[in-house]
Amino acid sequence: MPDRQGLDGARIVLGVSGGIAAYKAAELASTLVQAGAHVDVVMTAGAREFIQPLTFEGITHHRVHTSVFGGWDDGGTGHVDLAAGADLLLIAPATANTIARLAHGLVDDMLTAVALATAAPIVLAPAMEHHMWRHPATAANVETLNSRGAAFVGPDEGRLASGATGQGRLAPTRDIMAAARLALGRGGPLAGKSVVVTAGGTLEAIDPVRFIGNRSSGQMGVALAEAAIDAGADVRLVATRSVSEALLPRDAIVVESALDLQRAVAAQVTTADVLIMAAAVADFRPATAAGQKVKKQPGQDSWTLDLLKNPDILANIGRPGLVKVGFAAETERILEYARQKLDAKGLDLIVANDAVATIGSRRSAATLIPRVGDPVTLPELDKLAVARRIIDAVVRLLPERVDA
Predict the structure, then answer these.
(1) 97, 141, 214, 316: which is the annotated catalytic residue?
(2) What is the pTM (predicted TM-score) of this model?
């Protein structure tokens, strides 16, 4: 494995080509830097008509590359160095012209020179007028690049700079980041493995406007999905409606209740290698959900709800070779209760933590308790760092289950 974890520590060449969406690349560069990536920006002549190199230099703290003849001083070898050092070439926006030049192997500027010289994966985020995107020439060029292993994200449907509505908008930054993470994870320790992750707290309806729920934000589940992608896994994220839409990838499966979650997990886990149950599932649900909002009656001082026990989703799923990971968020006797759950649910690993300190927080302190072996207590870390340690433990479990 390279000396990096996903975007953190990755060397990314960000190619910016000349479309009106070039200004959005500044936000993308900033988000990549905040994720820990080293970002080198390469701008085409057209891109510099829309946004100045100084903007990217201020964001990345690195010199922006604009000429194929630049960067050959002080022992540097220009585009050759950039190409050789890149973990990923990310082009956003990718115009019809840039896509065409890449498809035909033209080398007439710094960006195309880097693209032709690099062995790194290439991700393109197209942005252009919708007739240009749908033109047969563009479609053929995209097919050519796909056949060579390049990945595309977008374009989206919506209002374009021309005032028309159609397919041609640059994909949102979060989608481009997800595509970059996926490309960087290729060849990781979970490559070829399928991982199902659940996130968030279930909502059990009382009536159309009220529910029984919990304080889970889903941050840990989302972080686990990201860490598994960083390790090369094919990840299917099942999240509840309690999770902020801004945190979720576009292909997340969104559910509401424990019964919804049970059905979704059962459908997704049939061919999975790993199930990580980070969702906080309600133990009970109302016996019946009213079809209309329940009104308070005159003089009513109390309200009694009849509750039914929800199924234990994790305990009821079992298949030879499936690695099962659960969570125990407790307020007392944390390790004792966690070990009980480990045994009762037939888990390979359980993550124990303090519910009050962890739920809804950006950070977590946890103890990883495997079915076989000694527990590992982690210091308080941000949830992505905790998720990476959990995924590391999952990687170590897989050979044991395959050989069993």
Answers:
(1) 214
(2) 0.85
